[in-house]
Write a structure and sequence with these properties.
The structure is a single chain. This protein is of the alpha/beta class and 370 residues long. The strands form 3 sheets. A 7-stranded mixed β-sheet has the order 1-2-9-6-5-3-4, with helices on both faces. The protein contains 14 helices and 11 strands. It has 2 domains: 171 residues, Rossmann fold (3-Layer(aba) Sandwich); 195 residues, Dehydroquinate synthase-like, alpha domain. The protein starts with a strand and ends with a helix. The structure holds nicotinamide-adenine-dinucleotide and zinc ion. Zinc ion binds next to α11.
Length: 370
């Protein structure tokens, strides 16, 4: 097992390893105390893992109750959140008790927000079960639900008391769900860790790798490095006033791709496309080393992720504007210069549109040439 310290405003530890859910109760007790533990999970993860966690929590002396909601981003919304809060009240949790969010990023975001709101905030333990949740959403303290007007529009910063990531859970993801989590892994390597990028090129993180000999320990090492990168980028900018925005690499265009496709293409795939388009635009502007793009595309493809889009500049810009409309006339973009070297640059919306156009021109010219 590995333990990673996260020095947030309220510091906590990330525990990483196999067969951790069996020991989760004791880890939660040490980090959060309390009498009752309310498990929040979704309809896919609950049947697989809730009984193990409930047993472990009981062994650690907790009274437990479990709230299960229908899986899927479309349920990360206000009525599910209110149901979860009513559930906590009906089971008479009080300020000293703990919410355990067991699942992917949707569960972590929703359960985390329930913990932040209930009685003005009770202890939270994150137990991420998807690759995306392990390497990204369970660390950093952001929680949210979606509103009809847009994703993640209502939320809170609420730090967990502990994060428990059982790598064994990755085995029940589909290969597609696994691949989707790799978008953020490649992003982390690009913004912070050229050595990790080179390692991933040699042994791309895939579902096949996980299931092969030594795969679990290799994935554990990759997840651990990603948690450290996320921790380090978030450190000192917990509320995203500056440096944390580096984590948005590929996301401005990525979110537009996601919205244009009505959220049918997974987040990691959309971020992958967004990163490639940003690299293309930066290369066209002479701001990025040209050899960066083929390496990025090769690695993303090896992970099973998309690198191109058929959407037009008008479609992408319209969706990007919708995503943006609450934040003024400029947009902060993460410009890649090379592996491990990215900058945050403020652009006008016209400048952003021109950048998308430049990126698509580059992509489409290459396709024509093929
Ligand atoms: N808070 C943050 O900092 C942050 C960062 C990135 C993403 N997010 C949010 O995370 C969400 C995406 O996360 P996600 O991709 O994990 O989505 P998700 O929670 O919907 O999980 C994807 C699917 O995998 C299933 N699943 C999860 N773990 C499983 C397992 N071990 N075995 C079998 N099935 C499993 C889920 O039930 C779901 O159907 C989005 O809502 C996004 O906004 C938040
Ligand atoms: Zn993301």
């Amino acid at each position: 097992m590995r333990i990673i310290d996260v020095p947030a405003s309220t510091p906590y530890q990330v525990h990483l390893g196999t067969r951790l859910l069996e020991q989760a109760g004791q880890l939660v007790r040490t980090a959060a105390g309390g009498t009752k533990a309310a498990l929040i999970t979704d309809s896919n993860v609950g049947p697989l893992y809730a009984p193990i966690v409930e047993r472990s929590l009981k062994e650690a002396g907790y009274e437990t109750c479990t709230f299960t909601f229908a899986a899927g981003e479309e349920h990360k919304r206000a009525d599910t959140l209110v149901d979860a809060l009513e559930f906590l009240a009906a089971h008479e949790l009080d300020r000293g008790d703990v919410v355990v969010a067991l699942g992917g990023g949707v569960t972590g975001d929703m359960g985390g927000l329930a913990a932040a709101l209930y009685m003005r905030g009770i202890a939270l333990a994150q137990m991420p079960t998807s690759l995306l949740a392990m390497v990204d959403s369970s660390v950093g303290g952001k929680t949210a639900i979606d509103l009809a007007s847009g994703k993640n529009l209502a939320g809170a910063f609420w730090q967990p008391r502990v994060v428990i990531a059982d790598i064994g859970c990755l085995g029940t993801l589909t290969p597609e769900q696994f691949a989707d989590g790799c978008g953020e892994i490649v992003k982390h390597a690009v913004i912070r860790d050229p050595a990790l990028f080179a390692e991933l090129e040699l042994t791309p993180p895939t579902y096949e790798l996980l299931c092969g000999p030594g795969g679990v320990s290799r994935m554990e090492a990759i997840v651990a490095r990603n948690v450290e990168i996320k921790r380090d980028v978030v450190a000192g900018d917990e509320r995203e006033a500056g440096g944390r925005k580096l984590l948005n690499f590929g996301h401005s265009i990525g979110h537009a791709v996601e919205a244009c496709g009505q959220y049918r293409l997974g987040h990691g795939n959309c971020v992958a496309v967004g990163m490639c388009l940003m690299a293309r635009a930066a290369i066209a502007q002479g701001a990025c080393a040209p050899e960066f793009l083929p390496r990025l595309e090769r690695l993303l493809s090896a992970c099973g992720l998309a690198t191109r889009t058929d959407f037009t500049v008008d479609e992408l810009y319209r969706c990007a504007l919708h995503d943006k409309k609450r934040a003024g006339a400029t947009i902060d973009l993460v410009i890649p210069h090379d592996l491990g070297s990215c900058d945050i640059e403020r652009a006008s919306l016209d400048g952003f549109r021109a950048l998308i156009a430049q990126a698509l021109d580059s992509q489409n010219a290459e396709e024509d040439a093929c």
